[in-house]
Structure formats: C-alpha cells, structure tokens
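Continuing the series of single-chain predictions for the mutant panel. This is the parent chain; the variants come on the following pages.
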Amino acid sequence: MAALSGAGIVAGAPATEEFEIDLLLEALFQRFGDDFRGYDRPALRRRLHQAMQLRGLNTVSSLQDRVLHEPGAGAALLRALSVQPATLFDEPEQVRQLRMVLASSLRASPVPKVWLAECAGPEQAWSLAILLAEQQLHLRTEIHATVANEDMLAAARLASFPAERMQEYHERYVGSGGTAQLSDYFDVRGGRATLIAALRGRIVWAQYNLVTDASFNEFQMIVCQRALPDFGPLLRQRVLRLFHDSLALFGVLGLDREFGDADPLTACYQPVFAQQSWYKRIA
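Parent structure:
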C-alpha cells in the first residue's frame, strides 16, 4: 500500500484509488457541474490527498461521501481543486510584461475586451483594472473575469482585503513598475479595502467553465496563466482551441508557458517577447 505523506494517512492500492478518483470526479460533475475529469491526474491526486489529510480521511471514497452528504463539503473541495487565488501584484515580472502588452495591443480597438479566463480571484482582476487605469484605457476597456462555480462568483463580487496589507501590496506594486500610491485606487472602510467603484465597474464577473462551455465573445486579449498547468494534454489543447476561436486577429494571448512544437496552433501566433509566454495572433 502506498503511504500518503502527513498525519499517517494511508491511501488505497493505486488501481483502487484511481477508480475511486474516477467516481469522485464523475460525482462532482453530476452534482455540481464542475468537470475535473480531464485535469492532470498527478496534480489532481495531490490536491485530493491534501483535502483528505485536512479532514483526517483515509480513502477517496470517504471524501466522496463527505462531498455528497455533508453541507459545504462539496463547495470546499471545488475551491481546493480550482485555480488558487492570486493576490495584488503577486508576480511582479508578469505584471511588468502585462503593462507593456496593454500599452501596445489595446489602443487600436475602440472598445477592447480582455478575458481573464479561470480568473484567480478578485485581486487578479483588480490588478488588471489598475494597470488599465494607468494606461488611460480603463474607460473604454471591458474586463470579463470568469470563474467555474457560483460560490467563487459570489465571493469575487463581495471581495475585500484587510487594510493592513496595503503597505505590502504597495511594495509589490512599486516593484512591478507602479509609480502612484496604490491606496488611491481603494476605498477603506471598517478595516477592509475594496477597489474603487469607478474601476470595479469595468469588471464583468460571470460563471463559465473552460472544460464544457463554448466561445462567448471576441476578445482583444485573453489571459490564462494559472489554470492551464492543471489541465491534462487533451484538455489543454481543447482550451487553446477555445481561446483561438475567441481571440480577435492580432489579439494577444497570455499563457502559462511558451507554445511547443506539439501545439497545433503554434503557426497562428508570434511571440510578443523573446522567451516569454505572450503571443499575438497572426492567422
């Protein structure tokens, strides 16, 4: 039997556990509509083991029982399996690249649309809204931020963060090329900070599933840099095709890694930067 790290939990025999995982993923899809069946299995298994360890469970079947019968357990597992939340300007180098991309790719469009696909929470969308304001693009740019389930959607719409984190976030903001006072972009009340309404109103939140849903608009920019590493090869290619069908000609695509020779759409794109995962659609 394979030992599971932490707290002495022991997983079942590999073949049995794979069968249990298949049943759990099918249950999540049938019960909640969230489809993890095409996700990268080793990464998914690690997250399931972490969820089991947190609950003191020995088998995936016992986790499935909790998910189906215990109030709130399903929503908690969906959050654990979904893309993990970002915080404001938490990857300064990526933010620097995004600043340059925004300046060069959106100005030609009268009403540019940006899709944050499988958005990593409200603070990722807020970071983008601030960058658009600093490029004087926010008044005519629509941000479409999509998440996979209703609980994540509700949390995004009501989001705030502790005001004492503002100084930490300001240092990240400066490190990513910001030159203003980050606090100018936030309303602080009762010790909580929320993006100002003028910028928050440029973000359209919606429930959308990359695995099952079809293209729903044409965008001048699509960003998906946190969710794609969780996808298995077939699902990844399906999602890249979805992005291609949703991206305007000469639009920009921000991914988690560079296109490879095995990616069938490689010839349709040219790099925006050398050795970086930003691409302009050219065909």
